[in-house]
Design a protein that fits this description.
Length: 328
């Protein structure tokens, strides 16, 4: 699909977002009842092809730790995970648990926002002018009972396929491997990175694209600072047609918000989200730790792998924590 005429006026986000939304829309593509958008593009054949990519058996977790040392600062009540023990070894030693014949155990609980660390944005996470994915009214989709239509549970069995790493940090900033905050990754940047990395990073239908900017590596070294919601490198608004044309199934980055921050328009908040989630039907991952994967891919000159990244099957949720696994 080619997008030949999209009006972009950086001083008029309203018109530019509307124009882009029309140009890349997937509404109705998979039927009026569709709940998973571009994840439809990962079919059984795609998963079978992805499984054949495993060569060495190296297994890498792409998740941040889920603990109190996470990136959140309380914006919109997003906090870091709070892990609490319900039963401990101390209780067992002192015979406080009430079990027979000496058996003891430990139990725990965790309280956290579903999007506080490595996670997927579901299709009910973002709306455009009160409209949700596939042309539905937002209020008919997400209510106080949760996402009644496109809840993250629908994606739980689907996100296993061919992962492709595009290491924009190394490609554009070889000296540091890290892009500057505020750098907007363009379609030309993405294509140049693919060409430089070679044929194993070619993007095909149903692929899960991972974009490494290097910002997370900087945050791990220097401290979280403004990582959660502050300035960041990320995808330019102009990448929406690129994402649509390549028919990718999902995309994830090592940044808090996927797209460049500050956003490119005057007085706009996450305009690329506003297009690609409710109109393109694209599942977005954020705060993925891609550093070890990038090292391994660079060492082997192979940028494709089997990726499994199932969200938790939380009924009605609009996002989910995830522990993505790249199997090389």
């Amino acid at each position: 699909m080619g997008v030949t005429s999209v009006s972009l006026d950086l001083k008029d986000p309203e018109a530019s977002i509307a124009s882009m939304a029309r140009a890349v829309s997937n509404w109705g593509r998979w039927g009026e009842d569709d709940a998973v958008g571009t994840l439809n593009l990962i079919d059984d054949e795609a998963r079978t092809r992805a499984a054949r990519l495993v060569r060495t058996g190296e297994s890498l977790s792409l998740s941040l730790p889920f603990d109190m040392n996470g990136p959140q600062r309380g914006w919109r009540r997003r906090t870091n995970p709070v892990h609490t023990m319900l039963d401990t070894g101390t209780d067992a030693e002192r015979g406080l648990q009430g079990f027979p014949h000496g058996i003891g155990g430990a139990d725990d609980v965790i309280a956290m926002p579903l999007q506080c660390s490595t996670q997927w944005d579901g299709l009910g996470h973002i709306f455009d002018h009160g409209m949700a994915w596939n042309g539905r009214r937002a209020g008919d989709v997400v209510t106080s009972e949760g996402d009644l239509v496109t809840g993250i549970e629908h994606a739980a069995p689907l996100i296993t396929g061919r992962g492709v790493l595009l290491d924009l940090g190394r490609h554009l900033s070889p000296a540091t491997g890290e892009l500057d905050d505020g750098y907007a990754i363009t379609p030309d940047d993405l294509d140049a990175c693919i060409a430089a990395q070679g044929p194993t990073s070619e993007i095909g239908t149903g692929d899960i694209v991972l974009v490494r900017t290097g910002q997370l590596a900087r945050a791990k070294r220097e401290g979280w600072g403004e990582y959660a919601g502050g300035p960041a490198p990320g995808l330019s608004f102009t990448t929406a047609p690129w994402l649509r044309a390549r028919d990718i199934a999902a995309i994830a980055t090592d940044t808090w918000g996927f797209e460049v921050r500050p956003n490119e328009f005057e007085n706009a908040f996450q305009p690329l989200h506003q297009v690609v989630i409710p109109h393109l039907g694209l599942t977005i991952g954020e705060m993925w730790d891609l550093d070890a994967l990038a090292d391994s891919c660079a060492a082997s000159s192979r940028y494709e792998f089997l990726l499994t990244a199932a969200p938790l099957r939380i009924t009605g949720a609009v996002g989910s924590p995830v522990n993505p696994i790249a199997l090389l």
